[in-house]
């Protein structure tokens, strides 16, 4: 009998869940548990909150070529590529004191080393959860019906228990728990950056504009749909920081589909990937 199996863990500051649909529940559960081990590996590699993580140890060794694992090398390469594509709107060195920039990171793919040319703090949080989702999807690549969610960074393929495409809800940034819309997703990743998450004591949010050194203004939500969760994660963050006009142009150049909602409740859509179709305008309005 076809059944839905779910396995979830608390990790990376959120809940990571795997849902699988198939005929052999016990085997599917074991596969989910085995795949989930990758999440712990990502956290041990790139957590900036753990002084023993590989990332934290790297930041104590500036000015020298440091051998790094393939995982950390891939994460840093993606972070720097996203920074370059976004002209630094996305920057893994944001928050460094004294100031550093992504150009101060040198990656040698041949030797497998990374050189930090200045003292810096490195934060890969904007892509790490998406990277973990990609690893889980790869570990379960032979299974046809999979949904993975790491704190709102999602990948889905196949169908749910009802035989329908997985449905992904896009949160309404002006309504606590409300949804803007739902997307039918198959073989795609969906990631949203929003100012409603992780509020700071000064009333700002965690999405920092590297050029200003403080929370970006203009948008309240940016959702990106494409192939590759870590890529979608980084692009959503970069576009959010850019704002509506620059962000939509940037995402169109990246050939993805996206929905950006500004502080006035207006929707800005991008249909450059032809994977999903967002309505031109929905019900999102700031509360009175």
Account of the protein in words:
This protein is an alpha+beta fold and 288 residues long. Among the domains are: 69 residues, Orthogonal Bundle (T-fold); 107 residues, ApbE-like domains (T-fold), CATH 3.10.520. Helix content is 28%, strand content 28%. The chain has 6 helices and 15 strands. It has an 8-stranded antiparallel sheet, covered by helices on one side.
Lay out the secondary structure.
Elements: E1 3-11, E2 14-22, H1 25-46, H2 54-58, E3 65-67, H3 70-85, E4 105-108, E5 113-116, H4 125-139, E6 146-150, E7 153-157, E8 166-171, E9 179-185, E10 188-194, E11 208-209, E12 214-215, E13 219-226, H5 229-242, H6 244-253, E14 257-262, E15 267-271
Antiparallel strand pairs: 1-2, 2-6, 3-5, 4-5, 6-7, 7-10, 8-9, 10-13, 11-12, 13-14, 14-15
Helix pairs in contact: 1-4, 3-5, 4-5, 5-6
Could you write a compact summary of the structure shown?
By secondary structure, the protein is of the alpha+beta class. The protein has helices spanning 25-46, 54-58, 70-85, 125-139, 229-242, 244-253, and strands spanning 3-11, 14-22, 65-67, 105-108, 113-116, 146-150, 153-157, 166-171, 179-185, 188-194, 208-209, 214-215, 219-226, 257-262, 267-271. GO terms for molecular function: metal ion binding; transferase activity.
